[in-house]
Amino acid sequence: MKCTREWDELDDMIAKRSPGYLAMGFLFVVILLAFSYLAWFRSNVAESMPVLAVEGVYTKGDDREEYTFTDLDEISCDNVDQIFITGYIKQEIPPGEEVFFQVHRESIQVSLEGESVLRASSAWSQNWTSFVSEGIQPGDKISISIQGMPGVGADYSIKRTLQRVYCGDKYQLLSHQANRNMVKLLFCLLIFIMGMAELLTAMTLILMETQNVRGTVSCGLLMITGSMCCLIDYEYIGLVISNEKALFLLDITVQLSTCFFLIMNMMFHMHTKKNWLLSRKLLAVWGATVGGYILGHFVLKFPLPETVWLTVMAALNGVFLLAELVLLILDYRRYREHRMKYMIVSSAILTICILIEIIHFVIHYYFLFYPFQIGLLSYSVLQYIVIFQQSREREKRSQMAAQLEKELVQSQVSIMLSQIRPHFLYNSITAIQTLCVQDPEKARKSLGDFAKYLRGNMDSLASKELIPFVKELEHTRHYVELELMRQGEYLEVEYNIEEMSFDIPTLTLQPLVENAIKHGVGGKEDGGRVKISTYRRQQTVFVCVEDDGVGFDMSLLEEKALDKQRTHIGLRNVKERIQRMAGGDFVIESQVGIGTKITIILPQEE
C-alpha cells in the first residue's frame, strides 16, 4: 500500500513538472548546439580543401566548337549530357596525395600526360572516386571526359562534379565536407535528440501505465529516421561508407521508414473506427507496394531503369501520404479535439514539404532537402507543444482523480451513515425480538438478514471500484427481507432479473429500493408494490426500480436535487456515482398518485 502511494506521488510529480523539464532540456540542447556552431565558426579548425586548378578548352557532346576556361567551375554545362576537357594543371600536387572527383549518375575518365589514371561511374547515387598523384607538376596535361545519364539531369550532375574536384587526403576531405555542412549536421543532431526524448517520454509513460503511447513512439521514431534521412548526404557520407550499393540501400531504407512512421503516426491519432480501418488498409497497401518494389527491383531484377523505379516509388509515397492526411482531416471534422489541431498542422506541413521534395525529384531527379528539413523541424516543435498539452492534461486528470476519490470516500461515509438510521435499526431489532417469542425460526432468519445488511453497509466503505451486480442485489434482498418482516402484507416486492453479468457502483440499487419503499409505497395507507428488474439491449444494461406509490411532481425534482443541506445524499449521490464511476446515466419518471420509475442506464464495452 505504501509503495502504491509513493508511485502515485511520483506520477503526480512527473505530470506536474514534465513540461518544465522538457522545456529546459530543449533549451539546453539549442544553447549547446549554438555554442558548438559558434566555436566551430570562430576556430576554423579545418583549412579549406585545395581544389584542382586547371585551364584549357572544352567541348560539349557532339558540338565540336571549343570553349576556353581558366577554372573548372567556369565551364558551362547547360543542356548537355557529355563534356570533354583538355587543359593544363596550374599547381603542384606532391606524390601520395589524391585527386578526388564526386561522380553522380555519370561515368568519368581522366588521363594524365596521355596515360589513363581514373575510370569510374555511378549508376544512381553520388560517389567519391580518386587517383593517387605520382608527382604532378604545373603544366602537366590533363584530359577529363564526363558522360552523364541522358534525361536525368545530366547537366546538373556534370556541373556538381566539376565544382568538387579536390586535392589532398581522404580525412582532410571528410573534415572539409563536414565543416561545409556543419549547420545540417547540427540540425540532424537536434532532431535526433528530440526524437530520443520522445521515446524516453513514451517509455516513462509505459512504466507508469498512464495512457496509450503509440502516437508518441511513432512520432519519436519519425524524428529519428527523419534526422538520419537528412544526415545521409553523399558529400561526406560517401567518404565514410565507400560501398555505393550499401549506401544507396541505407538511403532508401531511411526514406521509406520516414514515410512509414509518418503514415503510422497519423493513423494512431484517428478517433473514428471507419477512418482507422481505412488508414490500416492504406498502410497495408503501402507495405505491399514497398514489398513489390523490393521484390521486383532487387530480387527479380526486372529490366527497368533506376529512374523509373525511383520515380514511381517517390510518386506513390506522395499519394499515400496525401491520402492519409486527408483521412486525418476528415477524422478531425467528426471528432474535434484541441490537440488534433497541432497534429494536423504539423503533419500537413511535413507532408507538403515531402511532396515538394518528391515533385522536384520527379522533375530533376535529385532532392533539395531544405524543404524537408524545414518541415521536419516544424513537425518536431509542434509535436513538443502537443507533449506539453498532454502533460497539463495528465496533471488536470490527476487532480480530478484525487478530488473524485476524496468525494467518493465522503459519499461512501455519508451513504453508510444514512443507511444506519436509528429508527430503522430500533424497529428492526424490536420486530426480531417479538419474533423470538412468536416464530423463533423466522427470527433466526431475520437476524441473519439484519447482520448481512449491516455488513454490506460497512463493506461499502472499503469499495472504491465497481462491484458485481450479484453482490449489490444480494445486499438489496437482505434489506427487503427486513422491510417485509416489519411491514408484512402492506409491502410486496417483485424481482424480474433477466441480466446479472455486469458491474455497478456499490450501494446503488439498495438506496433506490429503500427510497421506493419509504417515500413511494410508504406514503399510501394500504401499501403497495415495488418491482426490481434488469435487462440488456445490445450493448446497454438497464436496471429499473418501479413502485406504484404516491409519486411526486417532476418540476420539483431539480430543486430537491440541488438541495445540498440535506442530511442524506439520496438520489443525487447515486446519479453522480453512476455517471463518474460507470459512465452511465440515471433517469427518473414520476406521476403524482401513480408512482415512480427510476432507470439506471449502464453502457457495456464490446
Helix fraction, binned, reads 55-70%
What structural class do you assign from the helix and strand content? Answer: alpha+beta
Termini distance?
A: 33 Å
Strand content: 15-25%
Mean pLDDT metric:
80
Radius of gyration: 39 Å
Question: Which overall shape is indicated by the principal axes computed on the Cα atoms?
Answer: rod-shaped
Q: Ranges with pLDDT <50 over ≥5 residues?
A: 1-11, 42-46, 560-569
- Main β-sheet, in a few words? 7 strands, antiparallel
User: How many β-strands, per DSSP?
Assistant: 14
Number of helices: 17
Can you describe what's shown?
- The protein is α+β, with helices and mostly antiparallel strands.
- Helices cover 59% and strands 18% of the residues.
- The protein has helices at residues 2-43, 154-162, 170-180, 182-208, 214-231, 234-240, 244-267, 273-299, 306-334, 338-364, 370-419, 422-438, 440-459, 469-487, 509-520, 557-561, 570-582; strands at residues 54-60, 67-69, 82-89, 98-112, 115-132, 141-148, 165-168, 467-468, 491-497, 503-504, 528-537, 540-547, 585-591, 595-603.
- Strands 1, 2, 3, 4, 5, 6 and 7 form a 7-stranded antiparallel β-sheet that branches. Strands 9-11-12-14-13 form a 5-stranded mixed β-sheet. It has a two-stranded antiparallel sheet with strand order 8-10.
- A hairpin with a 6-residue loop joins strand 1 (54-60) and strand 2 (67-69).
- Helix 1 (2-43) packs antiparallel against helix 4 and helix 11 (370-419) runs antiparallel to helix 17 (570-582).
- The protein is rod-shaped and about 135 Å long.
- Mean pLDDT is 80; it is low at 1-11, 42-46 and 560-569.
